[in-house]
Write the structure tokens for this entry.
Amino acid sequence: MEANPGTRHSIGFSIVSAHLRRVAVEWSSVRGQFELPDDLVYLNNGSFGPSPKVVLDAATAYLRQVDANPGEMLSVYRGKVQETKTRLGAYAGMAEDDFVFITNVTVGMNMVSRGLRNLGEGDELLTTNLEYGAVDNAWEFAARHKGFEIRRVEIPSPPDDAEQIVSLIRAGFTKRTRVLSFSHISTKTGLIFPVAEICAAARERGIVTVVDGAHAPGMIPLDVSSLGCDFYAGNCHKWLCAPKGTAFLWSHDAAQALLDPFIVGWGWERDNETYLGNFENPGTHCLALPAAVAHAIGYQESIGRDVIAARGRELASYGRAVIGSIPGTRILTPDNPALANSLTAFALPLIDQERLAAELATRRIVIPNGPREDHTWLRLSSHVYNMPWEIDLLAEAIGAAIAG
Ligand SMILES: Cc1ncc(COP(=O)(O)O)c(C=O)c1O
């Protein structure tokens, strides 16, 4: 069933494509595989992805198994985490010796920003205006301590095409640029950066590349080692819908020696530092979470990675049509499917924030939004459990907030 029986479609957008209608019956059954209650309109997978019940069940079962005899924790988990590593490596195109589990991308980007040995006084880090605030903070903190400078390339929203992005970044390189840090998929606009082309341009000049891949795993097919970057931090707890607190840091084998360890633990050896030794064992932590990532991959593969990405694009283009046609709205995300997938950002006319919050709350809609200089920014992210009627309901809430 496509329509929510309880929904009033007061704005009256009715442009669901025939294809979307045809597959809607199957998609509507997906929602029951999650804990999301029927009346919650969750349009914020971009911040935190809910885990399917099978993934939560697996994580909980691991926790119980281990607490039946915590003395066996390490031996129980060693096998499970290794299984997940093999699975995630195959899923995201990473050799097992080149990545480690971490708790989130913020940690991963700190591991790189704080650990990089090639950044110091007189050097420059190049980044963009479309990065995540906490990652900007991590670089600023590292810059303050190491004495390097930060330069920022302004990418328009939306950009014309991939070539424009690459040439803007190329034009931002100077003789002093040592490191380039940018997102695979921007948190602010959903722009998919042409990572391989950008990394190739950086490599020509010997510039180290650090990619914030918070949004890519599980949203779009991903083959990390073919991107040509030096470091890639990816989240499993957004689009892959793994438990919160699961992520990875991948490092090109030739770049691994550039990183000092972030947390020095059992794996570090004075005369024989290795990447896994330096990064794989940061003390006792919840290994049930990475162990359950294998189940999140299994869940995604049961639907199909390409099918999920295509569904993301379909819902996004429905959102572009419905929300984008609200008078005075600009779409900040490119229409080109190579440059965007399941995240779409809008510059709505400036709306009274309290009124918008109230209209969203009345309809139990969860979506990030807020006032910017001359507009209200709103980011729509939808995943396998979402339905087009939820976007209709969002349009209704925005319309009501504008009408006052
Ligand atoms: C682009 C980007 N980078 C990094 C992060 C940080 O992710 P986490 O909170 O999992 O560390 C986010 C979170 O939304 C993000 O959007």
About this structure: The first helix runs from residue 18 to 30. Residues 198 and 388 are 35 Å apart (CA to CA). The chain has two domains: 18-33+305-403, 55-298. The domain at 55-298 is CATH 3.40.640.10 (Aspartate Aminotransferase; domain 2).
